[in-house]
Design a protein that fits this description.
A hairpin with a 4-residue loop joins β5 (98-103) and β6 (108-112). 39% of the residues lie in helices and 21% in strands. It is an alpha/beta fold. The longest helix has 27 residues, at 57-83. It has helices spanning 41-49, 57-83, 115-122, 132-136, 145-153, 190-200, 209-212, 218-225, 228-231, 245-249, 258-280, 297-306, 325-338, 346-349, and strands spanning 2-8, 15-23, 29-38, 90-95, 98-103, 108-112, 126-128, 160-165, 168-174, 181-187, 286-290, 311-314, 359-361. The protein has 14 helices and 13 strands. It has a six-stranded mixed beta sheet. α2 (57-83) packs parallel to α3 (115-122), α8 crosses α11 and α11 packs across α12 (297-306). It binds adenosine-5'-triphosphate (ATP) and magnesium ion (MG).
Length: 363
């Protein structure tokens, strides 16, 4: 048995999730604790700004990577304290960092994190830069969670799908005896959050309640769904590079009521996911949602109504709380690295083959 920590800060820029887990000699995983820490507003804004080309990017990115390592370090220390575990007992950390560019077609993806600073702060081996090797092997570098989903959520008898509702939505189909399918569907929360911040001054629409009061705008919804990304065949992955405020502004009439746009964005998330499920995972009996969007009651109800043949629930039911799945996936990827096992699923990412993912900064 060995202890691992996974650290994740996703496209929503809401904060850092840390999960402590143990993994035994057979690969069985047990979650031991979770800690979430919101990003300081100044760091959140800077990381958001670094998603677009700007002045003095290199120095600003280095500074943000340093500050993020500080935040990651405090999550690790809080987690160790909560779980009464010493740093020397932890075999390795899998640290995602913050994606500021994702261009697998051009051969790169950039996750900011000063991993040396994190290793120096916490005294634990840090495995980072977990996406680049898959891209070097011709893959998308994403999604990486399907390997973990396969390890913990597969059923020998039932066709399941796992749906992560982070900033971006990603779907994993787990059907007995069939290859795993996994890809990014499109925006889950990122556009909803941005619109809510702009019009209500709040980082997200709690429970989707504001948007639930609006009318879906059919014309703009159809225009949004015409985005070629949605129809493209997997392997595919996306992020803020495509789905940003400018994309939305170009498709929404200037005189639309903000609440109606929020309702339309929720409908976009639901409809794009439902179409993907029908097209790529039509045999799915149960859909297990995770990520912060699983706490959005409006989104979850709309998804269940749109998919009457599928039981829509959350990973809580399988013993992994919705806000721990992504961080745990990166702890599992650290385990894969330590064991020199591949972390990617080539059938998902499109890589030429299985690869050991990540780079190590020793404690
Ligand atoms: N109670 C809630 N009601 C509505 N939305 C919520 C609620 N709680 C969380 N969310 C949404 O979930 C988001 C955070 O989810 P999460 O941390 O899974 O995303 P992320 O950081 O982008 O993750 P990743 O990219 O790793 O999947 C918030 O920005 C918000 O949109
Ligand atoms: Mg998050």
């Amino acid at each position: 048995m060995a202890l691992y920590i996974g650290l994740m800060s996703g496209t929503s820029l809401d904060g850092v999730d840390g999960v402590l887990m143990d993994i035994d000699a057979h690969g069985a995983i047990r979650l031991r604790g979770h800690h979430h820490q919101p990003l300081l507003a100044s760091l959140r804004d800077e990381l958001g700004a670094l998603n677009s080309p700007g002045r003095d990017e290199i120095a600003r990115a280095a500074k943000a990577a340093h500050d993020l390592a500080h935040a990651y370090g405090s999550v690790v220390n809080a987690l160790l304290h909560k779980c009464s575990v010493f740093a020397r007992e932890v075999r390795a950390i899998g640290a995602h960092g913050q994606t500021v560019r994702h261009q697998p077609g051009s051969g790169y993806t950039v996750q900011l994190l000063n991993a040396a600073k994190l290793a120096e702060t916490v005294g634990i081996d840090v495995v980072h830069d977990l996406r680049s090797r898959d891209i070097a092997a011709g893959g998308q570098g994403a999604p990486l969670a399907p390997g973990f989903h396969t390890a913990v959520f597969s059923s020998p008898i039932e066709a399941r799908a796992v749906l992560n509702l982070g900033g971006i939505a990603n779907l994993t189909r787990l059907a007995p005896g069939r290859p795993v399918i996994g890809f990014d569907c499109g925006p889950a929360n990122t556009l909803l959050d941005g619109w809510c911040l702009r019009h209500r001054g709040l980082p997200f629409d709690v429970d989707g309640a504001w948007g639930a009061g609006g009318q879906v705008l059919d014309g703009p919804l159809a225009a949004m769904l015409a985005e070629p990304y949605f129809a493209a065949a997997p392997p595919k992955s996306t992020g803020r590079d495509l789905f940003h405020a400018g994309w939305l502004d170009a498709l929404v009439p200037g005189d639309a009521a903000p609440v109606d746009v929020q309702a339309t964005l929720a409908a976009l998330t639901v409809e794009s996911i439902a179409r993907d499920l029908e097209r790529h995972a039509g045999d799915t009996r149960v859909l297990f949602a995770c990520g912060g969007g699983a706490r959005n009651g409006h989104l979850m109800r709309k998804l269940a109504a749109r998919l009457p043949a599928v039981r829509v629930t959350t990973t809580d039911e399988l013993g992994v709380p919705v806000d721990q799945v992504e961080a745990a996936a990166f702890g599992w990827l650290a385990y894969c690295f330590v064991e020199r096992r591949p972390g990617n699923l080539p059938e998902v990412t499109g890589a030429r083959g299985p690869r050991v993912l990540g780079a190590l900064v020793p404690a």
